[in-house]
Amino acid sequence: MHTSNLRLLLSALVAWWAWGTAYVVPVYIVLAFLLGFWSIWASQGMTILRKLQIASWDEPKEGCIHGKISLDATNVLSYIEKKRKQTGDHITVTHVVGKIMGLILKEATGLNGRIVMDRFVPFKTSDVSFLTVLEGGKNLAKVKVTAIDTKPIEHIAKELEKGADKLRKGNDENFKKSMGPLHFLPTFLIRIIVFLAGYAAGALGADVPFLGIEAFPFGSCLITSVGMLGVDEAFAPFTPFTRVPILVLIGAVKDGVIPIDGKVEIRKKIKITATIDHRFMDGSQGGILARVMREVFANPDLLDK
């Protein structure tokens, strides 16, 4: 149990014990003072992102698998340049990795689903979300691409750009609804709200319209590019309310040593890391992830088939 939930439970037990006794008035005054102080302490002087971080995590205790794959990015970069000239769209490595993850989810079906009341329930489509930075890094939002494995790479790029532009301009009404209560609520109440909303939307598939949350808001995979920050590699922590089985981080493209036909060459390399919920993954699923990623990076034209 999260420590703040334990505080709430203890407060409720004390209030229940004091009811009907001679101590009820002083006890309730003290509890009201402590609750008021806690509410102010846990709601002021922090960004929304910081409040969500504190509300989401407790001490680590769950099983996660961390994996890393280092890839020759030469062919993918050539493919991206070719597609940019053909379509006029600003296609990036992020779009390529997103499409690859869609193909992986289609094949590794055990990764494409959610857990409802201790039972695995598969999704019908391969949906992937991408994080985008807002307010100069003070906040984050997501853009979800549904059935990403069926869409051409240029369509994925357009869909992501449209969604990110809408968020940056403040025109996404659902996002504004979801952020509204977070401006003034303390972290211990945010924790309860995001848990309930996350379970309703992410596990049960229910819309939560007053918070601007649609059913299965994140799909089965959440992708973040840290390469734009100059980071070579990193591992993302699970955010419980997203309820996704796999998190993917894309590192920076840099020169690296690669053996080619028995010779050493300096070529463009990229590291991609994944944090995977062990409840969804076994060895065979991991093998599919690595194989498909390597195959497409070696022959990116597979994305057009």
For the record, the count of structural domains works out to 2
The chain-level structural class is alpha+beta
Largest sheet entry: 7 strands, mixed
Counted beta strands: 9
Runs in which pLDDT lies below 50 for 5 or more consecutive residues are none
Mean pLDDT: 87
Provide the helix percentage: 40-55%
Specify the overall morphology: elongated
Tell me the number of helical segments per DSSP (H or I, 4 or more residues long): 9
CATH topology group of the largest domain: Chloramphenicol Acetyltransferase
Proportion of strand residues: 15-25%
**CATH architecture name of the largest domain:** 2-Layer Sandwich
Order of helices and strands: HHHEHHEEEEHHHEEEEH
What does this structure look like?
With 305 residues, the protein is of the alpha+beta class. The protein contains 9 helices and 9 strands. The strands form 2 sheets. Strands 1, 4, 5, 6, 7, 8 and 9 form a 7-stranded mixed sheet that branches. A two-stranded antiparallel sheet has the order 2-3. The longest helix is centred in the N-terminal third of the chain and has 18 residues, at 24-41. The radius of gyration is 23 Å and the shape is elongated. The N and C termini lie far apart (48 Å). 31% of the residues are buried. The mean pLDDT is 87.
